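Sequence design from tokenized structure. All designs in this work follow the same two-part layout: the structure record, then the generated sequence. An example of the structure record is given first.
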């Protein structure tokens, strides 16, 4: 069989066949998903984080310096996500997708706390170190919902296959993250906001009389455009300290 016939036959199998989808309650790894018309459906919170102006940074600095910046940034975000029971499943050069499985408020809140700890570390603790090279800006987007996970690539070549994470929550989280920047580095969907536990929604702030009062940490934003429709979202410049 020639290359043309090989490709055509496989594409016909993908396009014309029915899919066998199983629902699972965990975040899949590559080995959990088989090739062919199969997939896994999960409910999960998705966190997307991305460096702003990465192309400009590459134009200004040597590749070795860019590698230092990216590795430091991605390590910080990954370490925080994993420490908070998240699962890193995709690196996109200067971005990360992290997942928290399930439809529980605790998982949604853990993802949001992770984002606020990333804000603290990247802006407050490590900001001076990054500023030595260039001021680093970034955006974080978070959404929740159903995601279809399938395996794509070449069947017998582990270096050339990976998982695809398909669903509105992934695309919406990316859109939110791409639109976020200083000072409000974090944006979340209305679904996420509505399911936050109190520790991830409210913070203490000193009022005019020097007394601490509980306030909503999130600013409401209407008319956020996504896929031809408009949504209510929330953003914040609050952070959570890391010990």
């Amino acid at each position: 069989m020639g290359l043309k016939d090989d490709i055509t036959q496989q594409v016909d199998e993908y396009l014309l066949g029915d899919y066998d989808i199983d629902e699972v309650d965990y975040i899949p790894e590559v080995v959990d998903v088989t090739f062919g018309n199969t997939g896994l459906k999960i409910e999960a919170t998705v966190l997307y984080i991305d460096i702003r102006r990465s192309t400009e940074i590459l134009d200004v600095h040597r590749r070795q310096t860019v590698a230092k910046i990216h590795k430091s940034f991605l390590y910080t975000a990954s370490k925080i996500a994993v420490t908070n029971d998240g699962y890193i499943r995709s690196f996109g050069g200067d971005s990360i997708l992290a997942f928290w499985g399930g439809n529980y408020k605790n998982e949604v809140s853990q993802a949001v706390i992770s984002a606020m700890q990333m804000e603290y570390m990247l802006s407050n603790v490590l900001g001076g170190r990054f500023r030595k090279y260039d001021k680093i800006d970034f955006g974080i987007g978070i959404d929740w919902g159903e995601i279809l996970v399938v395996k794509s690539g070449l069947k017998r070549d582990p270096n050339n296959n990976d998982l695809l994470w398909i669903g509105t929550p992934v695309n919406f989280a990316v859109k939110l993250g791409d639109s976020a920047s200083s000072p409000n580095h974090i944006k979340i969907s209305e679904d996420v906001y509505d399911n936050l536990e109190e520790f991830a929604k409210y913070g203490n702030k000193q009022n005019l009389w020097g007394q601490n009062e509980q306030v909503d940490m999130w600013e409401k934003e209407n008319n956020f455009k996504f896929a031809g429709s408009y949504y209510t979202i929330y953003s914040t410049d609050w952070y959570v300290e890391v010990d």
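The chain has one domain: 20-26+40-236. We note this feature because it recurs in several other targets discussed in the main text.
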